[in-house]
Design brief:
178 residues, alpha/beta, globular, 7 helices, 4-stranded parallel beta sheet
Length: 178
Amino acid sequence: MNMHDLLPLPYTEEALDHVAERVMRVQDHLGRRLVLENVSSYVTYAASELSEWEFIAELAKRSDCEILLDVNNVYVSAFNHEFDARTFLRAMPKERVRQFHLAGHEHRGTHIVDTHDHPIVPRRVGALRRGGTAVSRRADHDRARRQHPAYAELLEELDEARRIAASVQRETAPREVA
């Protein structure tokens, strides 16, 4: 079993209050906003009252933190828990998305594992556009936790991630009215 990932929380009001209070406490101590990442998950809790996207959006609002939106983690969790990744992406508050991550994963038939050791799947990256999510400020690419692909291959993937980020920013930029 691969336990390198964080285990998810139950998405309840009680957990939301608990996490938001601690995020605010750390931000106050540091004097700056935290940027929190969505996890890839393999289990859910029957006690959950909210979806993961509702939980994250509300956490960002209550604690005034920002979001590192891991698109691969969204896809992995969507496949594993049978929800529409576009719903998740559309629910993210655009003004709170500080950065996004792209990576590959390992498809094991009945489930997907977030391994970051496979190439980025172009169809997943396209979900950024279809999801209507404005990714701003910085594009990041994470791969090679276990594999070491050719440098040129990583640069190609990084260039593609940057092209998509630029495209999304152009598509979502405020338009001047003449």
